[in-house]
Amino acid sequence: MNRVGFVLRVKPELIEEYKRHHQAVWPEMLDALRRNGWHNYSLFLRSDGTLFGYLETPGDFEEALAGMGAEPANERWQSLMAPYFEGAGGPADRMMVELEEIFHLD
To answer: What is the CATH architecture of 2-99?
Structure first.
């Protein structure tokens, strides 16, 4: 299993609305994430809009992203979420900045 961390920036003035969306993620979106190897997926958000995401996937991150890219539910979700991110010039899942893992305690 590969561990992946990434960062994005949520517009500070939209944080509360963004959080509300994630209290009710669509079932078809959750199914698509599982189907495409997004395991133990978590999002963490600072008050300044810094969003840290973590997931584990059997393949590499690009494979996990590509699988989601083919999902109709993901296309709709990304369109809904795009206005919440700083620098949004496209889907947020294409703006994720992957972090290098430098330590892991088994």
So the answer is: 2-Layer Sandwich (3.30)
